[in-house]
Amino acid sequence: MLHGIKAKYEYKTPVKKLILNQFGAALLGIMLFMASRNSIPMSVFTSLFSTGFYMVIIYTSMWDIGSKDRVKADSNRGVKDLFIGTKSALLAGIPNIILGLLCTLFTAFDGMTNSVVIIARNIAIMWECMYSGLLWSIFPKTLKVVDQSMYYAYDVLENPEAALYMSLYLVIVIPAVVSATLGYIAGFNNFKLIRSYKK
Questions:
Q1: Cα(first)–Cα(last) distance of the chain, in Å?
Q2: What value, to the nearest 5°, has the Cα angle with vertex 33 and ends 151 and 126?
Q3: How far apart are CA 183 and CA 66, in angstroms?
Q4: What is the rounded distance in angstroms from the CA atom of residue 46 to the CA atom of residue 37?
């Protein structure tokens, strides 16, 4: 029987791991961007690579946690809740959600030059840099300045296009939530994409 959200569970470990994972993926994204910013196709390709890498480390880390939680649950020392991965990812994604809301709302009401937008978007660029090439590719006009600076790619946009673009910083929370959910459920059920066979 699966227990609901009221069951006691310590989210500190999975949330900490997810935040550290994003920090590592963001650093990778920044390094790859700096190496590929003079080529638009390369900036998009490296963004795909760093995003894929980010999804993999989320999945594997939550798989490990799910596997350990299953052992605890089977011995009545833990909680059986298949949505722990989902809730952990949402908790870890709070900074992303806040940045996305600040960027979207202030851009919608006061445009891209609002001081809150400038600060929030620059933080978002750094904290979520692995997604940058993909986000810019959705709005082709931004790619014209990507090869010069990662900070001014947004300045070519005007409302309502600018607000729509900034709302993508809310949408990009979804892949991490999906990856964490699948990873935890797979780990809890001891499901492996690649199985090892012993002779």
A1: 36
A2: 50
A3: 8
A4: 10
The answer to whether 38 and 147 are in contact (CB under 8 A) is: yes
Instruction: State the amino acid at position 91 in one-letter form.
Output: L
Nearest to 125 by CA among 13, 49, 198, 26: 26
What pLDDT sits at residue 116?
78
Per-residue burial over 182-194, b = 16 or more CB atoms within 10 Å of its CB, e = otherwise: bbbbbbbeeeeee
Q: Is residue 87's pLDDT more than 60?
A: yes
Supply the pTM of this predicted model.
Answer: 0.82
Paired tokens of 76: 């009545």
Rounded to whole angstroms, the Cα distance separating 33 from 145 reads 13
What lies within 8 Å, CB to CB, of 197 at 6+ separation is none
